[in-house]
Fold:
Amino acid sequence: MASSFDTPLAALTASEIVIFPSIPRPGDIERCAATLDDLHGEPAVAFWKAECRLLADELSRCGLREEKIRERVLSFQAAVQAALVERHQLRALSESRARQGRRRRRL
Structure:
């Protein structure tokens, strides 16, 4: 009786290349969210366009088709947006707790 371990993986036998980098990348997501949290107006727009273009160019050099590049850039954008929302929620929660602490001390 043959087991599944007797059959080599298709990727190994076909010498298939796995495209790197995979998206989203946590370090880049957090870095962009932190930067965008500090920037406003035109500097924020310019930074964001440059980051998305840099990612698209990197993915293009890896050989991805235009549709896949667009999909991954949109995924990256959504992840950065979610990180920004989380940063704002954590800040609001921290500020709320600080206000509650000040009120309790006054009582």
